[in-house]
Amino acid sequence: MSTQPQLIIVLAAGKGVRMRSDLPKVLHRMGGRSMLAHVLSTAREAGAARPALVVGPGMEAVRAEAKAVAPDIEIFEQANQAGTADAVLAARPALESHRGDVTVLFADTPLVEVATLRKLGETLQAGAGIAALGFEPADAAGYGRLIVDGEGRVTAIREHNDASEAERRIRLCNAGAMAFRILDLAGLLSRIGKANAKGEYYLTDAIALAAKDGHATRPVVCSEEEAMGVNSREQLAAAEAVFQRRARARAMQAGATLTAPDTVWFSFDTKLGRDVTIEPNVFFGPGVVVEDGVEILANCHMEGVRIRQGARVGPFTRLRPGADIGVAVHVGNFVEVKNARLEDGAKANHLAYIGDGRVGEGSNIGAGTIFCNYDGFNKQFTDVGKGVFVGSNSSLVAPVKIGDGAYIGSGSVITKNVEADALALERSEQEQRPGWAAKFRTMMGRRKKSR
Ligand code: UD1
Ligand code: CA
User: What stretches of 334-416 show up as alpha helix (H) in DSSP?
Assistant: First the structure.
C-alpha cells in the first residue's frame, strides 16, 4: 500500500464566542505561538503535501498567520457557519482537484501529535475509507460519541445533543480529526443533511453514510490530553499546561537539568544544548537558543536570544530580542540586554542596561552602567572594545565608541569616543571641607534642645 499525497484541511471558521475576545480564537497562543500555527506545523510534519484552511468572513488576521506559517497554504472562506461538513465543503475546489488522502483537523485542537496523524494515515493504508480519531474523556458531555460495532467499525458518530441515554453512556468520543480515502469525498459530504438538534451540517454524519456505502470506517484512539479542544480561556490554560509538561519532559530527556521543572516555561521553539542547568522560575519566550553547558540561575526572562557555551545568566536577568551572549560570559542580577552582543568572556554582573551595542571580549561592565541608546527619536549604537573596564554607574551616550583596553572612571557620562588604553573620566572635582560635619551636628543639636 502506498502513502498518498495528503490534503490536510484545517477548520477555523468558528467564531470562538466563549473566548470573549476581539482576537479570533485560533490566534490565541500556546507555548509562544498561535493554536493555528501549532496545528499547521503538525500537519506539515505529518506530511501534508497540500495544506488548506477554512476561515470565516473577515478573518484577515487568521489568513495572515496561516500564510506566515505555511506560505503555500490554500485558504477558503465559509460564508455562513453552517456546520463542520459545510466548512469542509468550502474547500471544494481543493477536494475536487485532489487525488489522495484527505485529513480534516480542527484549529482549536492544538495538541494533536504527528504520530497520531500518522496512525490515521496507516489506518487508511490498511484499507479503511475513514479513520476517525477518538478518545475517552473523564467527562464526555458535549462530545460526539463513536458508535462501534462488533467488528470494530464505527457505524456512526452521534453528537451529544442528538444522542439517546444509552448512546450517551458510550465513553469513546470524537476528537475531531478525521482522515478519508474516498474518491468522491465532496459528493459524500454533499449528501449530509441538517436534520439534527443544531440544524447544522455535521461532518460526523459522513461516517454513517460511508459505512452504508460499504467503506470500512475505523477508530484510532488517542489520549484525552491530545484531544483537548480549546473553547474558553480556562481550556486554553489547561492546554498550555499540557504543552509545558511535554516541553519540560523533552528538555530533560535531551540532557538538561531542571531543578524545578514545573516553574520553567518554554516556547515552541526553545533549543537547549546538553548539560544545560535551569534553576526555578525561568521563562523562555520565542527564539531562544541555549548552547551546551550554560547555567541559567533563578528568575530570568528571555526572548530572541542566543546564549553560547558555558555562559552563566541570572539570577534575575532579562534578555531581549537580539541579545547574543558569548562563550563563558557572565550576566548577573538586574541586567537587561537588548540587541547587543557580549563577546566571549565579557561580564556584566549587576544592574545594567546594555542596549544596541557590543561589549568586546573580556570586558567588564560595572554595576549601574547604562547604554543610553535612545534620544527619544532614534536608537544609536555603543561599541565597547576588548578588555575595557567600565566603572560603576557610568552612562555611555550613544553613538559612542570605547577603544580596546580603555578604562572608564565610575560615574562618568561618556559622550565622546574614547581612545584605546586611555582613561576617560567625566566628573566634577570633589570638594572637601574639614570639620564641617562635626560643626553641623553641634549646631543641629543646639536647635533641637531650644525647641
Ligand atoms: C465537534 C464535533 C464533535 C467532537 C468535538 C471535539 C461535529 C459536528 N462535532 O463539536 O463530534 O466531539 O468537535 O472537540 O463535527 N467550524 C467551522 N465552521 C463551522 C463550524 C465549525 O469552521 O460552521 C470549525 C470550528 O472553527 C472548529 C471546528 O470546526 O475549529 C469544530 O467546531 P465546533 O463548533 O467547536 O464543534 P464542537 O461542537 O466542539
Ligand atoms: Ca470545539
Answer: none
Query: Is 298 in a helix, a strand, or coil?
Result: coil
Q: Is the Cβ atom of 143 under 6 angstroms away from ligand 1? A: yes
Residues 73, 4: Cα–Cα separation, whole Å: 18
Cell numbers for 329, please give them.
560570559
Does this model's pTM top 0.90? My answer is yes
**Which of 17, 35, 53, 84 maximizes ligand 1 atoms within 8 Å of its Cβ, making it the mutation to test the pocket?**
84
pLDDT, averaged in runs of 10, over the chain (451 residues): 75 91 95 98 90 96 97 97 97 94 97 96 97 96 94 96 96 97 96 96 97 97 95 95 98 97 98 98 98 98 98 98 98 98 98 98 98 95 98 98 98 98 95 97 90 78
Query: Cβ contacts of residue 441 below 8 Å, gap of 6+?
Result: none
The response to whether residue 84 sits with its C-beta less than 6 Å from ligand 1 reads yes
Question: What residues pair up with 10 in beta bridges, in sequence order?
Answer: 53, 105
Distances (CA, A) of 244 to 25, 82, 209, 285, 438: 20, 35, 40, 12, 62
Question: Separation of 84 CA from ligand 1 center, angstroms?
Answer: 6
- Residue 83, SS3 per DSSP: coil
Q: How far is the CA of 133 from the centre of ligand 2 (A)?
A: 14
Any ligand 1 atom below 6 A from CB of 87? yes
350 is catalytic: yes
Nearest-CA residue for ligand 1 atom 28 is 106
Cell of 136: 475517552
* 236 vs 30: CA distance, rounded Å: 7
How far is residue 431's CA from residue 414's CA, in Å, rounded to a whole number?
Answer: 22
Using the mean position of ligand 2's atoms as its centre, give its distance from the Cα of residue 56 in Å: 15
Atom of ligand 1 nearest to the CA of 14: 26
What would the grid cell of residue 330 be? 557572565
Q: Which helix (H) or strand (E) holds 117?
A: helix 114-125
| C-alpha span between 29 and 56 (Å, rounded) | 19
